[in-house]
Amino acid sequence: MHPKALIPLAAQLLARVLRFEQPADALVSAFFRENRELGSRERHALAETTYAVLRRRLLYQNLAQSGKGPMERRLVLLAWAGEPRALEAGTESEERDWLAKCARIDRSSLPAKLRHNLPDWVAQPLQEQLGETEFEALAESLLQGAPLDLRVNTLNFKRDAVLEELKPQGAGATPYSPWGLRLQGRPSLNQWPQFKSGAIEVQDEGSQLLALLLDAKRGEMVADFCAGAGGKTLALGAAMRNTGRLYAFDVAGHRLEALRPRLARSGLSNVYPIQIAHERDERIKRLSGKLDRVLVDAPCSGMGTLRRNPDLKWRQSPQALADLVQRQQAILASAARLLKPGGRLVYATCSLLQAENEGVAQAFDQAHPGFRRLDAAELLLPQVPRAAELVQDGCLRLWPHRHQTDGFFAAAWEKA
Ligand SMILES: C[S@@+](CC[C@H](N)C(=O)[O-])C[C@H]1O[C@@H](n2cnc3c(N)ncnc32)[C@H](O)[C@@H]1O
What we know:
Belongs to the class I-like SAM-binding methyltransferase superfamily. RsmB/NOP family. InterPro entries: MeTrfase_RsmB-F_NOP2_cat, MeTrfase_RsmB-F_NOP2_dom, RCMT, RsmB-like_ferredoxin, SAM-dependent_MTases_sf. One of its GO terms (biological process) is RNA methylation. This is 16S rRNA (Cytosine967-C5)-methyltransferase. Residues 138-416 form the SAM-dependent MTase RsmB/NOP-type domain. The chain has helices at residues 3-17, 24-34, 40-55, 57-64, 71-79, 84-90, 93-103, 112-116, 120-130, 132-142, 159-166, 193-196, 205-214, 231-239, 253-266, 282-285, 312-315, 318-336, 358-367, 376-380, 400-403; strands at residues 148-152, 172-173, 180-183, 200-202, 221-224, 245-250, 271-275, 291-297, 339-349, 371-374, 391-392, 395-398, 408-415. It is an alpha/beta fold. The chain folds into 2 domains: 3-117, no CATH class; 204-415, Vaccinia Virus protein VP39 (Rossmann fold). Strands 5, 6, 7, 8, 9, 10, 11, 12 and 13 form a 9-stranded mixed sheet that branches. A 4-stranded antiparallel sheet has the order 2-3-1-4. The longest helix is centred in the C-terminal third of the chain and has 19 residues, at 318-336. The protein is globular and about 70 Å long. The model has no long low-confidence stretch (mean pLDDT 97). S-adenosylmethionine is lined by residues 207, 225-232, 249-252, 255, 278-279, 297, 299, 331.
């Protein structure tokens, strides 16, 4: 494709994404399917430019006020992440002068909002929680891309052996999870023999730590209550050494469908995916009081995953957050009924916001005196020697700027 054509195409893609009707990753994939003539470098330029606008939307919208031409085009020029010669070829000299003027603006002199690029309803509670200095460090980390973490399938493979094989690809061990490897960049994993053989799965180190916190054992009856496409289910099934019974519940059939090929690669046969209508479904009631461990990886605002999904900060709202908190409480209360005495319950989100984390856990405490809180550091310590670094007030609290994971929260209880 002629470099001149790339910028209008990027503006077209951005216009679709900025309607916020669907997740950005789905829209970008659909756009590439429609434009099959794009090569891998061109796709990379379009995707990275779109994500750069989503990350710093407030800044770029502010700067774009001074330019000329359609707004999406101005945003693409400001955030261009492709080759410089495509920008050179695709712009008029007036536009290039304008870009040079924008580049000379000292960004540290801009109002805080144009530096952190978070909506007020997200920024404010985080500022209160962390204080100004640490909030700035967090906000900066949320503007960066995330590394690519892998989980080694310890059912049939050893982390050290897979690490040796993947060292030439730049892999290193993750600092906390004993199952994890970390890569920089975006290699085409699907073609790697280690992926095809089921030795590795893509999974953020934070997600691995949630499975470690549940600590499902051989022969147990376990439920992954909000299993989705089964990232944590696979980790739990391997920890159970492919024994016992692991129920993977979810209301979304298409997500459970996406679990099937992953299960086939993993070699697990102890997993039972079950689509439920809602959290009080009859099929769940039949298991009341029978399970050893239940993980509730609740639907949440996803504010801990902004490095990967920057569109979420513009697609969520305070009203959506309030609705989510209600759903989280209802799901947690239903899931808790499955446990037998002595059983372990873990409630988790990939959010940084107290309302859907500590807030939901405290409401559960008040309504369920028969559940005793467990200390996450104690639970993790046997498998995660540095567990104390990850825990605040007994709860797992992962932060991108402190731990280089996505933002996660988890609280654990034992049923009396
Ligand atoms: C955070 S995602 C789960 C991610 C998944 N555990 C993983 O590791 O890949 C939350 C999931 O909760 C599911 N969900 C929403 N409402 C639910 C409900 N009432 N009962 C069970 N699952 C629900 C959503 O469909 C979504 O797949």
